[in-house]
Amino acid sequence: MPDLLAAPRAAPEGFSDWPELLALIRGSFAYMDGRIDPPSSAHLLTPASLRDRAAAEHLYIAGPPLLGCAFFAEQPDALYIGKLAIAPDAQGAGLGRAFLAEAESLARRRGLPRLRLETRVELTRNHAAFARLGFIKTAEKAHPGFDRPTSITLEKPLFA
């Protein structure tokens, strides 16, 4: 079991291990291969695209060794959680919940009223896990070229 003393935190200035971050995301999302259609956008990521994304969004990491990551993007009405990835051998230890707690704290500091994320229609275990954490389904969307919903949007209100 991983040491959760390596709790999620904002990536340090000068973070540069983009190949390791890419490997973490792809390893975490590998179980989706063959289960979701279209395939995960994780396959389109590169070290350079991750670096660019981190320049525009808040990158949070857990480690060392690198056990998890998430990108938090400020939107006008929410903090969007993207590419939440936990290393397979670190799953089930509460690290995902810890990243979501960091997202909630950041959103509150920024005055954003909700958290938002997307997950694929086929990943019903993810739907249930996020529901247990207070997320509710707010929308469905179809990827280009699909005539059926392929992903759902989930949100967690932060202010009553």
Automatic annotation (TrEMBL):
Looking up Pfam families in the UniProt record yields: Acetyltransf_1
Signal peptide span: none
* Residues spanning the membrane: none
Q: Does the keyword Acyltransferase apply?
A: yes
Keyword set, alphabetical order:
Acyltransferase, Transferase
Domain N-acetyltransferase, residue spans: 6-159
**Keyword ATP-binding tagged:** no
Q: Which PROSITE patterns match?
A: GNAT
Name of the protein: GNAT family N-acetyltransferase
Organism for this UniProt entry: Salipiger mangrovisoli
